Every structure is written in C-alpha cells, then in structure tokens.
Amino acid sequence: DAKTTQPNSMESNEEEPVHLPCNHSTISGTDYIHWYRQLPSQGPEYVIHGLTSNVNNRMASLAIAEDRKSSTLILHRATLRDAAVYYCILNNNAGNMLTFGGGTRLMVKP
Amino acid sequence: DSGVTQTPKHLITATGQRVTLRCSPRSGDLSVYWYQQSLDQGLQFLIQYYNGEERAKGNILERFSAQQFPDLHSELNLSSLELGDSALYFCASSANSGTPTYEQYFGPGTRLTVT
Fold it and tell me: Percentage of chain B surpassing pLDDT 70?
C-alpha cells in the first residue's frame, strides 16, 4: 500500500487559514486521497476526498499537486472546534477499508 | 451525530472473558467496518461486512469474530480476552462497497478495558 507522510503536529490561530500538508510520493493512478479527522473522544469523521482535481466542500478544500505526489487540506478559518488529529489516507481498494497513519495533531489557539 | 450507534459505550471485563460489541449502521448503509484504536497501534482496520457477507479482513486476531445480521446491524465478538485487547473499538458504515469513493461514517466507539 502507498504510504503517506504528515507532520506530527501543527499549530494555528483561531480564525486564520490552516494548510495541512501530506506527502504521498508513491501514489498510484487509482489511489483516491481521503482526509478524515478525529476530534477528542470521538470517532473519526470524514472531511473530504479527491482523485486529481482540487475539491471543495462545506468543511474544507483539498488541493492536489499536479503530479499527485502531495496534497494539502485547507481549513479556511480555523475554529477551536477544528482542533483534532487529521489523517491523510490513500484508498484504492474495492473494499474501501481505510489504513490510518499517525496523522497531524492540529492545535488551535484562541 | 454520524447516525452510527454503538453499544455499550464502556465495557470493563477480566482476562479470559468474552464480550460482544454491537453496531447499528446508518439507515440504508450496507457496509459495516470494525476498527481498533489502541495507544501503541493507532487505528487499525479489523474486518468489513457488506450486506451480510464478509468482504475484507485486516489485522483481526483469531480470537475475534464478527457477523452482520439481516437487519444490517453487526456484532464484534472478542474472546479469551487479554490485557492487550484494551482499546477503543469503532464501527463505521458506508453506503456501498466496491469503489474507494464512499465516505465512511464512524460511531462513537466502545471503550473496552480488560483487567
């Protein structure tokens, strides 16, 4: 399985944009890039996914590099509620099971 | 609220015992997944069921088993429990299976403590 590399932790100020990077240099053509987050004491929560083009939804934006070897999750205005562990996951299997890495712990300062 | 329910929320039991964790997927979702989250191993996929049939297996121990019933709820059975089985067990559901584009919705988890 292709692996992802994320920083262990990041800090942000409230109401500022946050860019969470993910490297996936061994990504294959059929790998979808998924982002999930896990708030404290909760189950993981789907954020966004994409294949080649940038994607936007109500929660975030996903910017995918042209060579697909990296991607960035963008939270446009961080709130305290966005403090969580963010997981970047490559998914190409028909069964759709998710392989979680260590993720990035995002801390948001008021 | 993801729409996925799990019971019980907490479970404390002794080594050697057997427990059953229950999961009800979101209405209409046919796929159910079980994951284990421990401090040393992180989040790991255990097993998936789709419409009553086992679809994929991950790092699931032989002492663990699961099933999905006709009403689509699922149960994860853990037997001969060891201290190392103490973890959070999450259930997730998705609308379908067969493509990697369906998002999964996770339940709140069951915290198992083995003493």
Answer: 97
Of B56, B58, B51, B105, nearest to B73 (Cα)?
B51
Q: How is residue B9 written in tokens?
A: 């929320």
With an 8 Å Cβ cutoff, is B93 touching chain A?
no
B32-55 confidence digits (pLDDT tens): 999 999 988 889 999 999 999 999
Which string of b and e fits B33-65 if b means at least 16 CB within 10 Å?
Answer: bbbbbeeeeebbbbbbbbeeeebbebebeeebe
Nearest chain A residue (CA) to B57? A97
Mutate to test the interface with B, among A98, A99, A104 (most CBs of B within 10 A): A98
